[in-house]
Amino acid sequence: MSTYVYDFIEGDRSRADLLGGKGANLAEMTRLGLPVPPGFTVSTEACRAYLADGRPPAGLFDEVNGHLREIEIRLGRRFGDPHDPLLLAVRSGGRYSMPGMMETILDIGLNDATVAGLAAQSGDERFAWDSYRRLIQMFGRTVYGVPADEFERELAALRATTGPAGPDAEQLRGLVGTYKKVFAAQVGHDFPQAPHEQLYLAIRAVFESWNAERAVLYRRREHIPDDLGTAVNVMAMVFGNLGPDSGTGVAFTRDPATGAPGVYGDYLPDAQGEDVVAGIRNTVGLAELERIDPASFRQLTEIMATLERHYRDLCDVEFTIERGKLWMLQTRVGKRTPAAAFVIAAQLVDEGLIGLDEALHRVTAGQLAQLMFPAFDLAAAPEPLATAVGASPGAAVGRVVFDSAAAAAATEPVILVRRETNPDDLPGMIAARGVLTSRGGKTSHAAVVARGMGRTCVCGAEALRIDPERGEFTVGDRVVRAGELISIDGTTGRVFPGEVPVQPSPVARYLAGELKPEADRLVAAVHRLLSHADAVRRLGVRANADTPADAERARRFGASGIGLCRTEHMFLGDRRELVERLILADDPDRLAEALAALLPLQRADIEGILAAMDGLPVTIRLIDPPLHEFLPPLAELTARVARAEALGEDPGRDGLLLTAVRRMHEANPMLGLRGVRLGLVVPGLFGMQVRAIAEATAQRVAAGGDPRPEIMVPLVADVRELAAVRAEVEAVLATVPGAPPIPVGTMVETPRAALTAGDIAAEAHFFSFGTNDLTQTTWAFSRDDVEGSFFSGYLERGIFAVSPFETIDATGVGRLIRLAVAEGRATRPELTVGVCGEHGGDPDSVAFFADAGLDYVSCSPYRVPVARLAAGRAAVRLTGPGSDSR
Amino acid sequence: MSTYVYDFIEGDRSRADLLGGKGANLAEMTRLGLPVPPGFTVSTEACRAYLADGRPPAGLFDEVNGHLREIEIRLGRRFGDPHDPLLLAVRSGGRYSMPGMMETILDIGLNDATVAGLAAQSGDERFAWDSYRRLIQMFGRTVYGVPADEFERELAALRATTGPAGPDAEQLRGLVGTYKKVFAAQVGHDFPQAPHEQLYLAIRAVFESWNAERAVLYRRREHIPDDLGTAVNVMAMVFGNLGPDSGTGVAFTRDPATGAPGVYGDYLPDAQGEDVVAGIRNTVGLAELERIDPASFRQLTEIMATLERHYRDLCDVEFTIERGKLWMLQTRVGKRTPAAAFVIAAQLVDEGLIGLDEALHRVTAGQLAQLMFPAFDLAAAPEPLATAVGASPGAAVGRVVFDSAAAAAATEPVILVRRETNPDDLPGMIAARGVLTSRGGKTSHAAVVARGMGRTCVCGAEALRIDPERGEFTVGDRVVRAGELISIDGTTGRVFPGEVPVQPSPVARYLAGELKPEADRLVAAVHRLLSHADAVRRLGVRANADTPADAERARRFGASGIGLCRTEHMFLGDRRELVERLILADDPDRLAEALAALLPLQRADIEGILAAMDGLPVTIRLIDPPLHEFLPPLAELTARVARAEALGEDPGRDGLLLTAVRRMHEANPMLGLRGVRLGLVVPGLFGMQVRAIAEATAQRVAAGGDPRPEIMVPLVADVRELAAVRAEVEAVLATVPGAPPIPVGTMVETPRAALTAGDIAAEAHFFSFGTNDLTQTTWAFSRDDVEGSFFSGYLERGIFAVSPFETIDATGVGRLIRLAVAEGRATRPELTVGVCGEHGGDPDSVAFFADAGLDYVSCSPYRVPVARLAAGRAAVRLTGPGSDSR
């Protein structure tokens, strides 16, 4: 026969799979000798058996009874004893914390008989009847789904008739009678009087709540397996509501907001835990506890010190003081803000509790990214209008607009405020500084699209009643009209009225070299951990940069080179006219002339970047987009010409352009004449670029510099394409005096390049994965087209855990990457392999790339520190547990 | 020391790698005891050594001299003997026949001294001097690259002064003097008099011709490896030009045009082989040889019978008769027309020379495809205007147009005639019946695009002088003006004036059940081989069909089911209005109404197809294209609205549509909201289709039919997408009374579906590779955009051997297919795996699919017989040599 039930003393925190997180930590505290009320845990295995068979496994309740008897013996009280009853608390507790499941039933064991015993034993009849009515309400709601309102209505009616002191014992006894009637009417039978029946039903209800709709939905979104099951913790009741020498509280071993050392928490005298959660009365600080009950306070701080030494991390606890006796009800490693995470990790190293490797596990690169955003000056901020889901970080200030057309037409910064967004809102979202919606969460259309564009976004602000027709929204009785200023914080989800001043991030200033590491505690912690990450990481971090200014910024942020320098930006702005000449060239001579005119411009651009990155590699990608992208869009031009013709006017140059645009129009430009194809089809185009690179390099060498250009060929799918370009490159290089040899490599951004990487490596000095395009082609969707159209639905259905454009799809795209790395290196062991898609700056993706054995990632300059930290974490992760996403 | 030189008696045909094709077959004939002039072969290994080191390998010429001595002994003549000289012919001969290489130098060993010996020995002074001047000319041209014109000019000048009898011996001796001067002037030194020097130089020249530009280009295009090298055949000269009892000819063991039995060939009395090739004089039939020299004729027919028995196939030979003595100079398995291939293969089976399996190797599925095209009635055809490259098969008749706009505007059938085509010509190519160009070959833009569209095309008709400005083309002095009728044969490359009557193909009529197998020899042969293919093939052949008429046709052509029934065609035509309602539906009720209106139409369509394919599987694909494809294009609509607005008119419904089109516009619709994504985003769309299928099936069952529908989900990239659709399918099926269970499977047409096939198979009853989309995404190019823009360049550069849209790219796309088959079957061993892209009808691709272990291919109804034959060939190929492309 299996064992399904474990006394707290039998478990430990390593058994969270079996005991759930809460049960495992209760066991850990019990083993440490801390004052935990006696109790036991019904294992997740029992839950799984129950869910599989639809009934409790054989012997389960016998085991429960056995353990219950142990508690009775230890406490000298019997469950159901009408004179001095043992009461129980039942709490669910799975491996992962999970909203939507039944959580707690207190006071199990009370009935019409034992209520008198509780009154006698506590000497507080009012307390006893209040406990009984709490049990009926909680039991009815969580075991039988009776709406809380059905009970609350009666309580409110009673309260309306009583003074500020509240109902007395007699009134509460009457309320229990009313509650029992409500229960019977709603459930169809009387409230169960047998204490054991109450307990068994409570345990079954916890099991069944595993499959409650909200729980299933939550698991699907969070990718928690459906077959884990939950544990059930059964514990002797202790009471914080037995008078002024009782109370309940929560505490942290350090300040979870700033990381400042010292115990930190809230206390509520004469109250049960759920009163703290319900926020009915205001809590006081722990200092007040120290004043009221110095012994308990001292014991609590000692216990918390023990826990922190034991867990070697910030812990939070729930505790209750029953008539001067301290009981620990829960502990866990506590949540903290990003700033606190860095500060605490550095402190724990100082205190000798953890080493620097482990400290890297205590922070995430995502937290570092959050610390780099400018933030609102909270000292100067008013009360928020609302707090909702921070869906895309940043601090945005703008005037309220309610429709996309208005946003797109606005000349001042605006915040687009919508109930929810849809693909029609894209132009408005592009034009706005931020987006605020009243519906939807982190996977809503607004959230997905805003994150994709890097726009600040707050979602699901349900407190807002938005009325676009009237051009206003209301929060409570406050009205905000179109054109008024608001400020939204995409990190915390807060919405402020008016313009809140924005403070630059000290971390960003430090990273840019504007602050010394010792400037403050946070910056010092960031400096320390980032330095360690740099020391341990095997993955290089380069930046994607197209201009000398970007290159310099990247260098300050710690980039060890440029992994992607796009040459096409050098075709934009006032050079468009030259590009138009190139495109309209209708014979080889004019084509050559147009290219010759572009040569000195490209050369100067490249020389600037090589100078900014002197001594570091600069990977220069030959032109990638289709040429027609440099011309006006077809529909726009068609309309202009149609209008001119309808009015009998001469469309002029537009007519000429329209002919070219029509000829070059592509149904799917992403899959069209671009990249290496363009280079092989337009004679001299790549040659001109290679000449510009070679001449710029030669000039830098002549000037005493140390230029290290690399030439990268985009969109290769077959080794013969690369071989043809390489031949052209070598031919050009041979004609430029003073140009050193320049490595030639390829983007790996088509599935076929990855699948034939072994062949391609024969012609490539390096590979660089273009993970944006590789994701698009591997999944067969283009970011431009689908992120706004179906990604939110896919995220909600759980088809994506996260957008594959944010975090690399390790299963599909990642398989191609691993394959290409292995087969490329088999052909050419010294092959350098990097990644230059946007995933290069995503922490979870960086961890994947480190594991896949890449040499470097390349990302936007602002993400360089994030990638450095992620790479350091990945390096120490390879020898220990932990992932960036936890 | 290696052996580099092999006497003919030392080799055999299995050693073609070492001896080249020609050398191996000469050896084979020698071993059969046939009258081959004595000789030897310098191996490809010697050539490779020469090319690697830049000089002949040590001992090569010693070996040559040794073998030469053998010949001298055998013939009793010495090389260089001024009285009775042995003369030699030197011929190149690699593993594969290869134009662009040096081919032949005859009469090596003649010089100022031996010419007299030849005159004395032959008794023909004129012949001797003529041979000498031929040697100088051939040697100069092939060893030193002296332009042929330099010599021809002198010969022509001499001929102008002589009568019809031609120059006499004295005049030819004078010409030799002139030739020697030309040689010295062009080469820089005198014509080499030493016979051995001539021989060595000739051998070196053959070696070096391996790297001649044309040879390199040819190899690149044909994907012949560059490192094979060529062999050199050295053979004692025999002379067909020693008077009326001499001559030369070529012969086939059967008629290579029709396959009719009996020796067939051409003979030219008193001539050398190159005179036949040059076509200076008209040849006579072999019957004439029988009259002139019955003994030689008898010997020749016996030899050819021996060769055919020995090679068990049609052979062709070159032979020379020297004063009544027959010499065999070359043999090989002969080329033949598609019709002859089938007829001969069947005859060889009848004659017991080969079995049916081997007979399948003697034909190709591509030949069967050619036999299915209608052809011009050649009996009724005039002399062709020109014969050029047949680039895309078919017989097209139409009026000449010279520009695409005219073609697009034409109301009668037209042939587009261009010097060459470019992407601007696409609309014209779509509108025309056929395309005729004067430049470019099988890889030109015109050829590639025409094949992609199935348009008849003749390319590279260099005889045509096309003058679009004057609206005419000329061939010689014949002028053809715009609007005149011409007929072009895309199979043979012939261009006829006027309208040539088109005959339906008897093979196609047989396949469609309109002719009995015994109708004629060709049809009987096709029937026999195709029946055998059906008997041996393990690969099923289904058809892609969307209508009952197509389904019936496919069934007649031997399809064992429908592998792809596209439901989107059911949204076209007069149902567009319903689809517009669907798209414009702005609330769930209107959407449901629009879907309900489509339901009965879909149901009726599907019932018709299920009826036509009763008892056979019908794979019905849920709607795949993006919905906006059912609306007018954005540019067109924008122009209409712009025009209306410019004129102050109300754009009406166009305005409404434009809003929808703008909202749904996609930059890359191929990678947009389509397939399973559309099904998951538009509520009820797939559900309506599934209901239509289920109800149609139930009706067929009720009517006593045996419907076997399968539901196929397009564009799946993740198993969760498929799981979501399956859940919806099951839910709908449960509500349709009388509907049997229907298998649900998926297209595998995204790289990710292939990469995660092991997961996806858990939810799929079957896979069907959509190789069009899979090719597009694996290579990252869309057929619509690139086939006309850079494919011709890629084919010419040898980056593609053949368009990956014609023949499956086995390296890249094929790797994904093999991986998906293996991992899908690992999850679900009974998984059915097919292919429904256009590659399903391409013979080489079918061979790949058979090898990859697929269960069936599906192709257009007309390709079903082709796929059946290819599948049969693949089945026997797996146990023997041969491929469809040779």
UniProtKB/TrEMBL annotation, chains A, B:
Entry-linked InterPro entries: ATP_grasp_subdomain_1, PEP-util_enz_mobile_dom, PEP_util_AS, PEP_util_C, Phosphohistidine_dom_sf, PPDK_AMP/ATP-bd, Pyruvate_phosphate_dikinase, Pyrv/PenolPyrv_kinase-like_dom
EC number: 2.7.9.1
Gene3D superfamilies registered for this protein in UniProt: 1.20.80.30, ATP-grasp fold, A domain, ATP-grasp fold, B domain, Phosphoenolpyruvate-binding domains, Phosphohistidine domain, Pyruvate Phosphate Dikinase, domain 2
One GO MF term attached to the UniProt entry: kinase activity
Cofactor: Mg(2+)
Domain PEP-utilising enzyme mobile as annotated: residue spans: 412-493
Active site as annotated: 445 (tele-phosphohistidine intermediate), 836 (proton donor)
Family the UniProt entry places it in: Belongs to the PEP-utilizing enzyme family.
PANTHER family: PHOSPHOENOLPYRUVATE DIKINASE-RELATED, PYRUVATE, PHOSPHATE DIKINASE 1, CHLOROPLASTIC
NCBIfam families: PRK05878.1, pyru_phos_dikin
Name of the protein: Pyruvate, phosphate dikinase
Species this chain originates from: Micromonospora echinaurantiaca
Higher taxonomy: Bacteria, Bacillati, Actinomycetota, Actinomycetes, Micromonosporales
